[in-house]
Design goal:
By secondary structure, this protein is of the alpha/beta class. It is built from twelve helices and twelve strands. Helix content is about 35%, strand content about 20%.
Amino acid sequence: MTDTTDPVRRLPLVFEAPRRGKPPKHWFDLSVDERKDAVVAMGLPRYRADQISRHVFDRLEDDASRFTDLPAEIRVELGQQLFPRLLEQVTQQTADAGRTVKTLWRLHDGALLESVLMRYPGRTTLCISSQAGCGMACPFCATGQGGLKRNLSQAEIVAQVLAADQMLAQGLIPGTTGRLNNIVFMGMGEPLANYSAVIGAIRTFLAPGPNGFGMSARGITVSTVGLVPKIRQLADEGLPLTLALSLHAPTDALRDELVPINERWNVEEVVEAAWQYAQTTKRRVSIEYAMMRDINDSVEHAHQLARVLRRRGEWGWVHVNLIPLNPTPGSRWTASRKADERAFIATLEGHGVPVTLRDTRGQEIDGACGQLAATHP
């Protein structure tokens, strides 16, 4: 890669989040048995746990004062102990005629996170955060350049989904009053660096009512920059989730700059782990590739990418998802020219690589992950 004008601000990679104030315990943090134990500890019979969960997961209620089938004298204590307010809306931006809604949330300790609700024809997708900030230090990413504040709790992850389903149920998004079809862990943070909370949240998304949202594992995508041991661990969970590998470059020399974690697990290692994931789960892996003008978008880069992936045998295991970069203000990293996008796609197709160009959303707002949080200290 040719050198460009301004130097890259390289932040240290962070794999463990700084310790901050512990989030308050919430119903979403508890297993089914722990929920029953919690209500018994409050002097209620165990069956009350199912009643409470029906309010939450069936009726999408998280205000204990509205649990009218519970004794009135217990609702205040229940709200204080197990239903603290986790997310406070700071601001909200809409785009695409109201079909894209980006929300900035403040947590109990002042940390910020973002989630994006997107309505498409026939489906609704929520992009959620797994960390407040990110420690992976990718220079083209607003979140990565802001650094890592802390991991989110399991409940703080689940609360983003509840808030989105509540918006949908209230008819606030044009075209639907249903529920989410898809969840993508592509918001702030590296999901596999907060593995336990992410898996716990996913199991809550999948659990049938009344103990969860009853979603399909095939509707959940987990994105990663390539934490190889965690990719292997995820493959062994027995869940047919979609894995999205944020590759962004076909060579180590380039990926070392764009995705610093590559210095620990290189292109060969992360692609091999992704291929093994596909073999284990029988789920096609998505290769995420943000197109950056004059950085990684040449025809030669496309040839190199095809060669990297072709070594894994049949094309059925993989799909390349090209992403037009949503640049952050003042950044030298910007979107590719349309002509270069077309040439890149044609080159991959010439090799037989399945490829699509992502439908961009939120371009008229702070659409890139981390942009909105960066404007609110």
